[in-house]
Write a structure and sequence with these properties.
Length: 475
């Protein structure tokens, strides 16, 4: 049981041909929606354990905002898909059983426009909405929990990040399974077709699909063994390029104003990758030679790189230049707040975050930045009031409960501290630690009758969920 729970269920996209029949109820008998949700929680538990996952709120929220826009314009707008970002320079994105999509930072850096990034996400979303993974599983003679594990391991080794797969093992059956999971032209054509439709309905430039492939092909002047991950798992053939170009003829040209946040996200990722001085030298050289995709994005990256290297005077110069562009973006406000905090001007940082939150209500980076400032200034009650306002909006965000727990800890309220810490672990998909923390909440000697009843009921609920996992893995 414990061994099964520790295995990473990364299941990358397994596609099928265009002419596959609709599975109907048969597909759900292979992997029910209930079982798929249990597997999804185990995938996300292991993802959250990795040290190679990007946890920057602004980067995560940006990716999710694009993903949500695409999902709403898909054939299944109500489907909930969760995204995570792997700090990996290779160009890759992969969809998994459980409605999950992983994206490498290398994909952000290789995309030349927001539409190019969106085209890849739309492609992966298409794999999920078309139920390609479940269709693949339906072709197997008999799928058991063990079979799902073998499939997960096989695809993990061929699709996922080495860091995510640490500790995983590969048996003979898993190796044999992996040999049957290579992508085919038909597999990709269906995702291309559906992805382009999603991209168009979402207001992005559909020609970005072909543009991104051209970018990859230009950079692929080496052997296939050293090719970007995206090329190996999503093969680009002349036939496929021709098919995409033919489909694009059905769409008229659409002028699109580029989102400045796309360049800022690329900049933020670049600023924190590699040796500090090396990054700074590259960015300085790019700006001097005007060798950049977007000047504001390049200066934004340099400002963060200077902050990272504690060269605050130089960072200040770049921030002033950025403000001169008159670009409206919450990311510029967060940059200023980060700078002010780093130079010891916490009260100024707090003020600018308050202003930012009024301009951009619900911007998580501002909310948590303010909450952290309040807690550090022994104003935990203000932090709690602020965070409670967003409990409905961010009801499944572990960060929200973590900050609430810290605030209650500073007040010495044990029951509420442990209760919120339990919820934080729960939404990090760590069910066992959630139970441990909720058990501490139940045993705490403070709290009123209502609070004690609430944590007792929640502990029972968590233990019941644990029993479902035991039942599932004992199949």
């Amino acid at each position: 049981m414990k061994k099964l729970l520790s295995i990473l269920f990364i299941i990358s996209t397994v596609c099928t041909a265009n002419n596959l029949p609709d599975l109907g109820d048969y597909g759900s008998t292979v992997v029910s929606s209930h079982d798929e949700s249990l597997i999804a929680r185990q995938i996300l538990y292991q993802v959250n354990q990795s040290q190679n996952i990007v946890r920057d709120i602004e980067i995560s929220d940006y990716l999710e905002s694009i993903g949500l826009k695409l999902i709403r314009n898909s054939s299944d707008p109500g489907r909930k898909i969760q995204f995570f970002i792997v700090n990996d320079p290779t160009i890759n994105a992969f969809a998994m059983l459980g409605n999950i999509i992983g994206v490498h930072t290398g994909l952000f850096l290789s995309a030349n426009s927001e539409s190019e990034l969106a085209s890849v996400l739309a492609h992966e979303i298409a794999h999920i909405t078309q139920r390609h993974i479940v269709r693949f599983l339906a072709q197997q003679d008999r799928i058991t929990t063990e079979g799902l594990i073998i499939t997960a391991l096989a695809i993990l080794l061929s699709r996922g990040s080495a860091d995510l797969g640490s500790g995983a093992f590969l048996g003979g059956n898993a190796y044999a399974m992996q040999q049957n999971l290579d992508f085919t032209r038909e597999h990709e054509k269906e995702a291309d077709r559906v992805g382009i439709q999603i991209l168009h309905r979402s207001g992005f430039d559909v020609r970005a699909s072909a543009d991104f492939f051209k970018t990859l092909q230009k950079g692929n002047q080496f052997s296939i063994g050293a090719a970007p991950s995206f090329l190996r798992t999503h093969p680009i053939t002349s036939d496929r390029i021709n098919d995409i170009n033919a489909r694009l003829e059905d769409f008229s040209y659409k002028q699109r104003i580029e989102n400045p946040n796309f360049y800022f996200i690329k900049g933020k990722i670049r600023a924190f990758i590699g040796r500090k001085k090396t990054v700074i030298n590259i960015l300085e050289k790019n700006i001097k030679n005007k060798a950049y995709l977007n000047e504001a994005g390049e200066r934004y990256a340099l400002a963060y790189a200077y902050i990272r290297n504690k060269e605050f005077d130089k960072a200040y110069i770049q921030i002033k230049k950025l403000l001169g562009f008159s670009i409206k973006s919450p990311m510029l406000i967060q940059l200023q707040a980060t700078f002010l905090t780093q130079v010891g001007r916490e009260q100024d940082a707090k003020s600018i975050l308050k202003v930012g939150l009024k301009k951009y209500p619900g911007y998580r980076s501002f909310i948590y930045g303010l909450a952290e400032n309040y807690i550090e200034d022994d104003e935990s009650l203000k932090a709690i009031r602020l965070l409670e306002n967003y409990k409905i909006k961010f009801s499944q965000d572990p960060n929200l409960y973590l900050f609430i727990s810290k605030a209650y800890s500073s007040q010495g309220k044990k029951l509420l501290q442990y209760e919120n810490m339990a919820e934080s672990f729960y939404y990090k998909f760590n069910l066992q630690e959630a139970i441990n923390q909720m058990d501490l909440a139940v045993k705490a000697n403070d709290g009123n009758f209502y609070e004690k009843s609430r944590v007792e009921a929640r502990l029972k609920q968590l233990k019941n969920e644990e029993a479902l996992y035991v039942k599932f893995y004992d199949k």
